[in-house]
Amino acid sequence: MLLITGITGHSGRYFLQELIRNDYQGKIRFIVRNTSDLSLIEKSNLNYEIATGDLNDEEFLKTCLKDVDTIFHIVNIRYTLKIVKLAVLYNIKRIICVHTTGIYSKYRMASQEYVQIEDELKKIVERENIKLTILRPTMIYGDLCDHNMSKFIKMIDTFRIFPVINHGKCLIQPVNARDLGKAYYSVLMSDSNNLKSEYNLSGDKPISMIDAFKLISENLNKKTIFINCPLGLGVFLAKCLKIATFGKIDYVEKVLRMAEDRDFSHFDAKEDFNYLPEPFAVGIAREVKQYRNRENT
């Protein structure tokens, strides 16, 4: 049996669509919350069962792991160790985890926790002889439910003058959730013996932050004036906002990373399971169109 977490999330929904489109025949157990939208699952012809509960509940997780031979964990890197440690008790030998390229950040606040999780994870799987595949998406976008480009779309639509950190020169490589869904399915259906232990899942090509913003502005048919905001000033303002809101709004790390290149090669994924993500210009045009349609209704 295949156990999947995070199937109703952003990239998870596209993974579900791939399972349906390819008529996946294996038995699946989906772990969901009681607030999850199950409509797409319920309309499918998949051989599935639903486990509703909290991943923080160890007893619940134990019941979910019974009769499972493969785990596909999407929902959050912070649950990985808990799931894997329990998987050892049930002799589960294949685990696929969706983590993040945030692990490569030079800022310790962004990467330290991820590094510690993966270091411990690798020790466990090596000791227990588990086939582990870690997938690391870059900035995920593609629909208005994302937490990245959708915010920039709204801000650029709202403000005629838009500040960018360090002239917007830093490189990003956003990946569309649709491409992730296809990649997840390809990895699942690949022989684990022919896969590497980790893959970066980035977008088609790197693009500067300012060029990404200009594409959004063009698709919105807006004339946006982009002005430079030095990194030091941006960090200072973010810290002031954090203090003023008693820590409730903390954008310090996000501002710092706006000046950090976040482009990563997906060469291994292309070679091993034919990963071919679409160009950012295509994906962002689709998302802006969704935004404009929603604003006009």
Detailed description of the structure:
- The protein has 297 residues and is α/β, with parallel strands linked by helices.
- The protein has two domains: 136 residues, NAD(P)-binding Rossmann-like Domain (Rossmann fold), CATH 3.40.50.720; 115 residues, UDP-galactose 4-epimerase, domain 1 (Alpha-Beta Complex).
- The chain is built from twelve helices and 13 strands.
- It has a seven-stranded parallel β-sheet.
- Strand 5, helix 5 and strand 6 form a beta-alpha-beta unit.
- Helix 3 crosses helix 4.
- It starts with a strand and ends with a helix.
- The mean pLDDT is 93.
Can you count the beta strands?
A: 13
Write down the Rg.
Answer: 20 Å
Adjacency order of strands in the biggest sheet = 3-2-1-4-5-6-11
CATH class identity of the largest domain: Alpha Beta
Q: Secondary-structure element sequence?
A: EHEHEHEHEHEEHEEEHEEHEHHHH
CATH superfamily of the largest domain: NAD(P)-binding Rossmann-like Domain
CATH topology of the largest domain: Rossmann fold
Enumerate how many helices there are, as a single number: 12
* Dominant shape: globular
Secondary structure: elements and pairs:
Elements: E1 2-5, H1 10-21, E2 27-32, H2 39-43, E3 47-52, H3 58-65, E4 70-73, H4 80-89, E5 94-98, H5 108-128, E6 131-137, E7 140-141, H6 149-158, E8 161-165, E9 171-172, E10 175-176, H7 177-189, E11 198-201, E12 207-208, H8 209-219, E13 225-229, H9 231-244, H10 252-257, H11 267-273, H12 280-295
Parallel strand pairs: 1-2, 1-4, 2-3, 4-5, 5-6, 6-11, 7-10, 8-13
Antiparallel strand pairs: 9-12
